[in-house]
Amino acid sequence: MKLYIKNMVCNRCIMVVRQEMEKLGHTVQHIELGEVVVAEELNDSQKELAGRTLAALGFELIDDKKARIIEKIKVLIIDLVHYQHNMLKYNISELLSRELNHEYSYISRLFSEVEGVTIEKYFIAQKIEKVKELLVYDELTLSEIAEMLNYSSVAYLSNQFKKVTGLTPTHFKNLKQAKRIPLDQV
């Protein structure tokens, strides 16, 4: 049985969901961001218990088809920006359409209606969070960050960063307590 789970954004989330499902006595066959497949069929009370257990940790079971599509879009974008940098060269609309088996116009309209923000703005917000992370680590130059995240230039990255945060990347980097936003709250 496949369960769809909201707010899974990292490998630690995968580990926690796996542990919790196993504590509940379920055999996890497959798990990835946003979904878990268990060997057995869950009855309503087992689903409810799993839902309550996961909710206590900040996750949420998703039953609605549209909500699953929205969550899948978020998971794909988070994975793309934070873990699959080499894939950023591809067209996001084509990638989402292919992965979700829907026309991009439908996906885009649904996402905007439900989330109140366009896919493009969500994608940019995720990229800016990744830039913040990399700036805080202070291991790469701004030029290397721009290249890694497929920005056409450092100037374009800097302009987009300032537009979103109100700060230049350099000013952000020099702040004593640079603020990052948890990925599930972007």
Textual characterization of the structure:
The chain has 9 helices and 4 strands, in the order βαββαβααααααα. The protein is globular. The protein has helices spanning 11-23, 44-55, 65-83, 92-100, 104-115, 119-137, 142-148, 154-165, 169-174, and strands at residues 2-6, 28-32, 35-38, 60-62. The chain has a 4-stranded antiparallel beta sheet, sandwiched between helices. It folds into 2 domains: 2-62, Alpha-Beta Plaits (2-Layer Sandwich), CATH 3.30.70; 65-186, Orthogonal Bundle (Arc Repressor Mutant, subunit A). By secondary structure, the protein is an alpha+beta fold. Strand 2 (28-32) and strand 3 form a beta hairpin.
Task: Looking at this protein, list some descriptive labels.
186 residues, alpha+beta, Arc Repressor Mutant, subunit A, 2 domains, four-stranded antiparallel beta sheet, 4 strands, 59% helix
Helix content: 55-70%
State the helix count. Answer: 9
Which geometry do the CA atoms define?
globular
Overall number of structural domains: 2
Low-confidence stretches: none
Calculate the mean pLDDT score and round it: 91
Q: Report the end-to-end length measured between terminal Cα atoms.
A: 30 Å
Largest sheet data: 4 strands, antiparallel
